[in-house]
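Open question from group meeting: does this chain pack into something compact, or does most of it stay loose? Before anyone orders reagents, we agreed to write out a predicted structure and look at it together. Recording both the input and the output here so the notebook holds the full record.
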Amino acid sequence: MTSEQRARMVQVGEPVPEFAGETDSGGAISQTDLLGHPSVVFFYPKAGSMGCSIESREFARLFDEFSAAGVKVVGVSVDRAEAQREFRQGCALPFELVADHDGKISARFGVLGRLGLARRTTFVIGADGRVVKVLRTWRPGGHARPALEAAAGERRVTPDTPRSADQRDG
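Structure tokens returned:
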């Protein structure tokens, strides 16, 4: 990838770029796994670092709410699968982590920094595979709740979806 391709971050309204990666459990993941339901993909610089632990645990604390809203959560860093596995176990994370050891996924999303680490960025992706919100900050906290709110608003309602009491009464 050229530095120009690496520098351009995926924007709201654009489709998620094509990618393929390995999860911490040894499975495969690609952009097609993000279709059909809202998803949150958050990039962080380094598995096991204090800041990344804070960020990942924030997503973990809200995981039941993400699940209840039908939202898939995935974390990505430029670490190898073994480091991701240890990080996931050490932080008791209930969601998959993706090993982007060659930086290609981070580059495709436009978040690969000059030092070869992913910049802390969260993408909220609609069920149609298009980005609906981008959250960027150097601070490790504060991404999870706004991501949840944006992703929950993207939940597709079908005739089979149970409605809440306030929806039935209104």
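Observations to bring back to the group:
The domain at 3-169 is CATH 3.40.30.10 (Glutaredoxin).
The chain has one domain: 3-169.
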